[in-house]
Specification:
With about 300 residues, this protein is mainly alpha-helical. The chain has 15 helices and no strands.
Length: about 300
């Protein structure tokens, strides 16, 4: 294999890592180097929202990139010990560099799943406290937040601090929505804001309808996940089986020397690329639709108006 071919494959592997990072961290789609100019949400806001949903508001993107660089070195070193050569270690290191972003994405999915299961109960408690018990809307919100799931409590605590400092419920809910970065939280906060500012008994009906909607959505997602359980288990073999076969290949014939040959390097890189494509394609087929934050743009424009006054 010529040096030019090796360099081209290394550049392709590096660009693949770039595409994976921008898809996971920034939500970009396609194979272009940047999204189209029609994007409405600023990239910085999208990064912050993604990290908030993963519970990593204190983590900087540079720290994730640093962890990816360390894993690139480790993965490339292990691949060199197995296969030798240059191209295969670069490809393996590029694949290992995606692990921090994949782990953050998994953490984000778990937190969003836990929030979906908790919101129906929390909304029902807020409804009971504001109607039957007679507590104010802010007090009911903070009481329920203190008893909510552990990952959500810091967001409610930050919102309560904002309320104690400013007594501005709109700003308080803006803090809560930015920390939770959740579509259901946006809907609940907007409903509570209207109830707090306008009053009336309509909040009971609206919250009851929201509880019913969240329960139906949660049940539908659980049914879909149960049907996909077998396929998700089989998806793991996309990585496990080829890796095991590669290790066994070290004891057959020339072993590592065969992997280090130009044809062996090409075969290893081709296998890694096919594994990555199959893993991504299977995950995309099984991915459930995510709820869009319909009140997000409204909240951004509202903050801008407040800042200009």
């Amino acid at each position: 294999m010529t040096s030019a071919t090796g360099l081209a494959l290394a550049l392709l592997a590096g660009y693949g890592v770039f595409l994976l990072f921008t898809a996971l961290a920034l939500g970009w789609r396609g194979v272009a180097i940047a999204p189209s100019a029609t994007r409405t949400t600023p990239p910085r806001d999208r990064i912050g929202e993604w990290l908030a949903q993963a519970g990593m508001t204190d983590v900087k993107v540079t720290e994730l990139v640093g962890a990816a660089a360390v894993l690139f070195i480790v993965g490339a070193g292990l691949a060199y010990a197995l296969f030798g050569g240059f191209v295969a270690p670069v490809a393996a290191g590029s694949f290992a560099a995606t692990f921090p972003f994949a782990a953050a994405r998994t953490r984000r999915a778990r937190r969003r799943s836990a929030a979906r299961e908790s919101w129906p109960r929390m909304i029902e408690e807020i409804r009971l406290l504001t109607t039957s018990v007679g507590r104010s809307v802010p007090q009911a919100l903070f009481d329920v937040g203190r008893r909510g799931p552990e990952p959500m409590r810091p967001a409610f605590a930050a919102a309560q601090r904002e309320w104690l400092i400013s007594t501005d419920f709109e700003r308080t809910l803006a803090v809560l929505k930015s920390r939770l970065a959740d579509a259901t939280a946006d809907a609940v906060c907007e409903t509570l804001l209207v109830a707090h500012e306008l009053g009336g008994s309509d909040v009971d009906r609206r919250l009851s309808a929201l509880v019913e909607d969240r329960i139906q959505d949660l049940q539908g997602r659980k049914d879909a996940a149960a049907k996909q359980a077998g396929a998700r288990f089989a998806r793991a073999f996309v990585v496990v089986v080829p890796l095991g076969m590669a290790v066994v290949g070290l004891s057959i014939g020339d072993g590592r020397a065969a992997y280090a040959a130009p044809v062996g390097q090409l075969a290893v890189v081709s296998g890694m690329v096919m594994i990555g494509i199959c893993w991504w394609w299977a995950g995309r087929l099984m991915r459930l639709p995510e709820e869009q934050r319909v009140f997000y743009e409204e909240d951004v424009s509202r903050r801008r108006r407040r800042g200009s006054t």
